[in-house]
């Protein structure tokens, strides 16, 4: 089975708030384009510590995380704004090991929030088949 990857822009959500309030300039908003591994077994966004530092995210607390190797403690960090196509939403970040074998992860809660689905046959993300061209948020 193949791997689904997706490029996304991520930006420090706190920086965006400061920019919107006129406290910092737009070029001071820390952001980066990331190629994520879409992982429907993961819940949220997982980033290596090097990216967390680069984006200036703040640690909120340690959280218990279920992994293939059992339960471990990982840092849980302030939000990034994830933008894929014209869809964007803020999500907190979970710390991953810094390893060349560990890509950033895009979990199922992010896909749900951005109203995206995995087309596993073509190994890509698509909009919800009921409204593929517009992001729809469920409110019921």
CATH class: Mainly Beta
Compute the CA-based radius of gyration: 15 Å
Number of helices: 3
Uncertain stretches: none
Mean pLDDT: 93
* Secondary-structure class: alpha+beta
Cross-sheet strand order for the largest sheet: 1-2-7-3-6-5
Helix content: 10-25%
What is the number of domains?
1
Distance linking N and C termini = 35 Å
CATH topology assignment: Cathepsin D, subunit A, domain 1
H/E element sequence: EHEEHEEEEHEE
Task: Give short descriptive properties of this protein.
6-stranded mixed β-barrel, 140 residues, 15% helix, two-stranded antiparallel ribbon, Cathepsin D, subunit A, domain 1, 3 helices
Task: Describe the 3D structure.
The protein is an alpha+beta fold. It has a single domain (5-127), classed as Beta Barrel (Cathepsin D, subunit A, domain 1), CATH 2.40.70. It is 15% helix and 46% strand. The chain contains three helices and nine strands. It has helices at residues 13-20, 49-55, 108-113; strands at 5-12, 31-38, 45-48, 59-67, 70-84, 87-96, 105-106, 116-119, 124-127. Strands 1-2-7-3-6-5 form a six-stranded mixed β-barrel. Strands 8-9 form a two-stranded antiparallel ribbon. The protein is globular, with a radius of gyration of 15 Å.
């Amino acid at each position: 089975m193949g791997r689904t990857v997706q490029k996304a822009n991520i930006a420090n959500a706190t920086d965006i708030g400061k920019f919107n309030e006129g406290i910092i300039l737009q070029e001071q908003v820390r952001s980066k384009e990331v190629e994520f591994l879409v992982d429907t077994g993961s819940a949220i966004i997982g980033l290596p510590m090097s990216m967390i530092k680069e984006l200036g995210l703040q640690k909120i607390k340690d959280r218990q995380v279920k992994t293939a190797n059992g339960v471990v403690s990982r840092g849980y960090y302030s939000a990034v704004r994830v933008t894929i196509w014209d869809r964007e939403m803020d999500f907190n970040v979970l710390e991953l090991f810094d390893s060349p074998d560990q890509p950033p992860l895009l979990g199922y809660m992010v896909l749900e929030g951005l109203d995206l689905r995995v087309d596993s046959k073509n190994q890509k993300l698509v909009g919800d088949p009921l409204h593929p061209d517009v992001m729809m948020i469920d409110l019921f």
